[in-house]
From TrEMBL:
One Gene Ontology molecular-function label: ATP hydrolysis activity
Domain ABC transporter intervals: 2-237
Protein name per UniProt: ABC transporter ATP-binding protein
Superkingdom as given in the UniProt entry: Bacteria
Length: 248
């Protein structure tokens, strides 16, 4: 469903992606792990066309992601942004229904609100939350709203950027479980970025480790613990000693 081939991206002298190659089969959940600043978010943004690669190819469903109708392309995606990225000046339901209120997915406001309330319920939030503003919500509730927004238009492909960062371990567990359930029930293709190993085990079918701009290891989550890859082992166990330099 998603294929990145030898993707390079630099910002000035900062050569972030150095030949990234990765494949995500339809209906599967891929989790990308790696240290902070290794280019995980940049890789997601390349697929969405928010960042333009310097070279390489990105195919979504066999088609070049950088060509064709952008609106139709993006209508297939849902995204939970790192940090939630809710619009503070909009109520919760308007955030959730954001894409249902404009563009090619536009529908009448009353219908969009109904869908928003249904999606809020799906992520464990009561209808009363719909008319609150993001600043009135806890961090866990904001994540749930972001998740409801990501699934509101029933996308075929969903991206989750650091879905549990900033949450306590119990709330992280709840969000991980929700993500897994929703991806399975929607039959969506999912790509998640995280450095939370609990998320990896809860969400992934396949795992890919990004380091030095390339995928150092990729395989099924069940093979992660005996990969024999020193980079992956160091990351999984959070060791200070190993091939990954701790000082950056
Ligand atoms: N728009 C941008 N302009 C310049 N540098 C950027 C931009 N986006 C990301 N970077 C740089 O690219 C590197 C990777 O960033 P990012 O993908 O956000 O890391 P992470 O793996 O933590 O998600 C960082 O060094 C970051 O500073
Ligand atoms: Mg990031």
């Amino acid at each position: 469903m998603i294929r990145l081939e030898n993707v390079h991206k630099s910002f000035g002298n900062n050569h972030v992606l150095r030949g990234l190659t990765l494949e995500v089969p339809k209906g599967t959940s891929m989790v990308i792990i790696g240290g902070s600043g290794t280019g995980k978010s940049v890789a997601l943004k390349c697929v969405l066309g928010l960042v333009t690669p310097d070279s390489g190819q990105i195919l979504v469903d066999g088609k070049d992601a950088t060509k064709g109708d952008r609106d139709a392309f993006l209508a297939r995606f849902g995204m939970l942004f790192q940090g939630g990225a809710l619009f503070d000046s909009m109520s919760v339901w308007q955030n959730v229904a954001f894409r249902l209120l404009r563009g090619s997915l536009k529908r009448p406001a009353a219908e969009a609100r109904e869908i928003a309330i249904e999606k809020l319920r799906r992520v464990g939030l009561k209808p009363e939350v719909a008319d609150l503003f993001p600043a009135e919500l806890s961090g866990g509730m904001q994540k749930r709203v972001g998740l409801a927004r990501a699934i509101a238009a029933e996308p075929e492909i969903i991206f989750f950027d650091e879905p549990t960062t900033g949450l306590d371990p119990i709330m992280s567990g709840v969000i991980n479980e929700l993500i897994r359930e929703i991806v399975v029930e929607m039959g969506a293709t999912a790509m998640t970025i995280t450095h939370d190993m609990t998320s990896v085990r809860a969400i992934a079918d396949n795992v890919a480790m990004l380091h030095d701009g390339v995928i150092k290891w990729t395989g099924p989550v069940a093979e992660m613990d005996h990969s024999g890859d020193p980079y992956l082992d160091q990351f999984i166990h959070g060791r200070a000693e190993g091939p990954i330099e701790a000082v950056r």
